[in-house]
């Protein structure tokens, strides 16, 4: 029936990827307990329309993303940086290879000129697609090969350069609506400091 055909078409349109990721399905962090460590993910809009995206995480108290959300234009590539606080293990525990922490990146097709707002995804829930679920994987700096460490450093340098570019005034950008950095970093740092102070007090 026409209803079933339209349903299939809708499922296909939602499932088809709008974004391409070059980092696979893992977010790689150096294992340095008690420190903030970083990873990076490169995201490209492979669709013909602007695409809004946002990060979601199962560990909001220990992680932040930069940018956490935004709009990516057709054929535009962004490099997002993910920063995580590595908890100090209690007792003589071995380094965990993987954590339960996950990051999910969701997308939504938007019209030209539309800027990101938190309400975008709430207003069009049926059209939101889960693009990628990324798992946290640790890389031990003591045992990692020089090639692995160099690759990680290159990723982070690229993310830092992209972050600096986003700090430029909006009128210097070649188009409107690109992924922008919010105030999430300062808010996260303040929250983290209060959390650690509370733990020490207890």
Automatic annotation (TrEMBL):
InterPro entries in the cross-refs: Ig-like_fold (IPR013783), MSP_dom (IPR000535), PapD-like_sf (IPR008962), VAP (IPR016763)
Renumbered residue ranges of the record's region Disordered: 148-181
Biased composition (Basic and acidic residues): 148-175
Gene3D superfamilies assigned: Immunoglobulins
Single GO cellular component term: plasma membrane
Stated family: Belongs to the VAMP-associated protein (VAP) (TC 9.B.17) family.
Protein name: MSP domain-containing protein
Taxon lineage: Eukaryota, Viridiplantae, Streptophyta, Embryophyta, Tracheophyta
């Amino acid at each position: 029936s026409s209803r079933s055909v339209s349903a299939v078409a809708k499922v296909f349109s939602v499932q088809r990827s709008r974004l391409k990721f070059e980092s696979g399905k893992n977010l790689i962090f150096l294992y340095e307990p008690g420190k903030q460590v970083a990873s990076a993910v490169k995201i490209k809009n492979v669709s013909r329309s602007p695409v809004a995206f946002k990060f979601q995480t199962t560990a909001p108290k220990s992680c932040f993303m930069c940018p956490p959300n935004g709009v990516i234009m057709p054929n535009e590539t962004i490099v997002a940086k993910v920063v995580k606080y590595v908890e100090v293990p209690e007792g003589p525990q071995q380094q965990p290879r993987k954590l339960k922490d996950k990051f999910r990146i969701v997308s939504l097709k938007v019209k030209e000129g539309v800027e990101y707002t938190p309400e975008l995804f709430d207003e069009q829930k049926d059209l939101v697609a889960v693009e990628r679920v990324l798992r946290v994987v640790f890389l031990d700096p003591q045992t990692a090969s020089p090639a692995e460490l160099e690759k990680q450093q290159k990723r982070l340098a690229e993310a830092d350069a992209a972050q600096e570019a986003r700090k430029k005034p909006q009128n210097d950008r070649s188009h409107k609506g690109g992924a922008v950095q919010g105030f999430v970093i300062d808010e996260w740092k303040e929250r983290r400091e209060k959390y650690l102070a509370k733990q020490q007090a207890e």
